[in-house]
Task: inverse folding
């Protein structure tokens, strides 16, 4: 009598859909966070720059310098954190996973194909996640 191992067991669609749901939630959370951060930094840069010019024109140099510094910090943070690029990658991965979820529900994709696609998407995320390069 041979014992059945987990490798021999048939793949369960509920395990795959659970993993898929967790991945979609993860990318939705990070898409929202990066989108919100990008929007806040962009609006902050515009408002800070405008306020700096306005206060400079009114001969309030110290206040103008503070607003200019805030704008510079926000621009540097957005540039170094690559918020727009990370927003885009989380959005595209989330859409790919949602499309896979639809394909599973429609019966177009079987369990093995779904697992392979989840692995492929995860590997592409690890490979393509933007990270600022350091030149020095």
Result:
């Amino acid at each position: 009598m041979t014992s059945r191992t987990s490798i021999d067991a048939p793949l369960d669609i509920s395990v795959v859909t659970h993993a898929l749901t967790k991945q979609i939630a993860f990318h939705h959370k990070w898409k929202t966070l990066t989108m919100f951060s990008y929007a806040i930094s962009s609006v902050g840069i515009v408002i800070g720059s405008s306020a700096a010019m306005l206060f400079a024109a009114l001969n309030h140099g110290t206040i103008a310098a503070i607003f200019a510094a805030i704008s510079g910090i926000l621009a540097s943070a957005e540039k170094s954190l690559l918020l727009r690029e990370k927003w885009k990658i989380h959005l595209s991965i989330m859409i790919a996973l949602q499309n896979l979820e639809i394909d599973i529900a429609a019966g177009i994709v079987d369990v093995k194909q779904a697992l392979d696609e989840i692995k492929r998407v995860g590997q592409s995320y690890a490979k393509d996640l933007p990270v600022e390069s350091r030149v020095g």
Confidence is low (pLDDT under 50) at residues 1-5. The CA atoms of residues 45 and 75 lie 6 Å apart. The two ends are 64 Å apart (CA to CA). The first helix runs from residue 13 to 57.
